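Possible regression after last week's pipeline update?

I re-ran a chain I had predicted before the update to compare outputs. Posting the input and the new output here so someone can diff against the archived version. Not blocking, just want to make sure nothing changed silently.
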Amino acid sequence: MKISGRAALSATILPVLLAGTAGIAQAQENTEAAPADTEIVITATKRAERLQDVPISVSAIGGDQLSKSRVTNADDLVTKVANLQLTSIVGDNTPIFALRGVSMSDYSLNQSSPVATYYDEVYKGNFAFLGVAMYDLERVEVLRGPQGTLYGKNTTGGAVNLISRAPELGETSGYLNLGYGNYNRMDASGAINMPMGEKAAARVAFTFARADGWFKNQLPGEPDLASVREYAVRASVLLEPSDGVRFVLRGSTSYQNPRNYGIYAQPTEVHRVGLGKREIEANVTERRRARTYSLALTGNIDVSDTLTVTSITSWDKGKLSFYEDTDGTATELLEIPYYDKANQFAQDLRLTSDTGGPFDFILVAYYNREKVFNSTTFEIGKDVDSDGVPGVTDADCAIGLPLGCLFANSFNQVKKSFALYTDMNYDITDSITLRGGLRYTHDTGRQSDFESNALGPNGVLVVNLIPPSSLKYSTDNISGKIGFDYKLADGNLLYAHYSRGYRASSFNAQAFFDPSELSIAKPEKVNAYEIGAKTQFAGRSVTLNLAAFYYDYRNQQFINVDPGTAAQTLLNIDKSRIMGGEAELSVRANDMLSLRAGVGLLDSKIKKGTVSGVDVSGNELSNAPSLTFNGGVDVTAMDSDSGKLSLHGDVSYSSSQYFEVLNVPRLQQGSYAILGAHIDYETADGRWNASIWGKNLGNKFYFTSRVDLLAGFGFDYNHISAPRTYGVTVGHKF
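New output (post-update):
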């Protein structure tokens, strides 16, 4: 295997970084100032296991740290986890994650990411299901690589698991936090845990936030964009009727209706004359609306001393709509309203063994049905008068096509997925364990009632561009995993494994102008090879976890936007390869000082692929920076009878990256670093607390997604980062 210059550089700098950070550490669990003997327990492998005993690359972030660090939406996770990136092209709280360079290069609202998101083990594939969820969490777990033998929905990139706090038997308890910050941000969050007898309990949690927009609109009388306006409520009931029987019923809803994001159009000398970096002249300022509802029943029944049956039955419903000022200016050159309505039902039935002997297994049957209605409209130059008659009418579209027209498409989509899979382990010796698993997946999809029309500015039909059409697919796939791990005498762990990931086919939601744009993307596949080590030493005060991987990536699904015509086609990138690694460490120097740091390395290359008639072989994949880093320091400045005062600082860094596979030089995002900090005070009895916090303290300006529309529309389409934010939070526990 030929090693590229970048890979060679990565191989050189990784040990240097590790040596240089022997006293700087990244807590794999990212828990600030945790005791040296703390055992971090996760459920990433569907069993409660100590983090250091799990032979896969996984990071876990504690709920308390998420709250104190102001990780209030899923977008912020990228600053905490090595080799996790995102594009925000769909807007805040609807991230498209990229993990180890595996990403979804498609912003269509009918698509599902190759990095799966789960809420309490329930898969949330469609954007309409995501909503507001980063509150009252026990922890977040991020698993890297294909997870087909552990999780219901097969994915090629990995999984992000949000795990909420469950009700607890015992005494009534709870908390309430209130905060205020710049941009007139006001927020509140809290929870109450209530016993209901000896065998039942309930927990109700909520979050609420409002803030003015930070993208300042310079059009007179128009509101600022990128505001915050949201709430969410989650209610959970725990029932333990007898020993070995446990049920948790969760119901939640969330609502968001902020002013939508703004688009930063370039070249700036044409589209942003006289405007500051976070100023805009936007004529479309409608509110973005997202509503979610969900129900999930999780049951665990010990059918014997060695076998447990787990059932997870879930239902989700959601709507997402927003009107995008795509050109980012006061003109009506290009504007796009999006609408997505979805519902899903899923059933996960699992049998888990705990024999105490050399062999254990997990056997699972999984079913998911997702139904989506999607509509999108390209509004192109709808203020253009083409017929010479005063006023813009529907006749202007007929004469000036495509100017003065609304190109509207809509369709229904139903996807079903059925899978049988197993994960097994066999102890060959006291030190060596063989692990493996197989998965069979049957996926079907149907896109029906697809139609696209050119309408006049008043919505009158001018011409039918794509007549009512239907597409469908049916695929079967067998994937799996095999590997082994070796437990050293001191308890440290070495592992190696091979796994194959699979992502089902998908439909193009962006066909507008011709029936030839309707297409089905072929399934993605990833052959993933990984080795790693999980170590602790110096009395467990130092944790060092390492992983290195090589991916053979086939048929990555990709939406291509023709810069000249804006026609969008759904393609597959034939073949790519990705290699790299992560190093995550933590050091508790003493009772007063903890340090943490993490590094991610990537070297991605397309080996075969054509986009818009251009051979992209040799180009980098999108959302795959060669180096990412995150780290911080936690200092307990005072811990006495009068209370505890602690200081926490964080930094995250990303090297340059592309957001598209043509690797257009002007669209490359350069390297950048983000600083954050918080100062916390807690009374000696732990009942009262206060925090001063800040995010993006350096007010760094960078792009979070970019699309080339220069040739056809005369501008580059960009999303930009949020500015510096800061505030204070006070809380009470009872």
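Follow-up from reviewer: compared with the archived run. DSSP finds five helices and 39 strands in the chain. Marking as no regression found.
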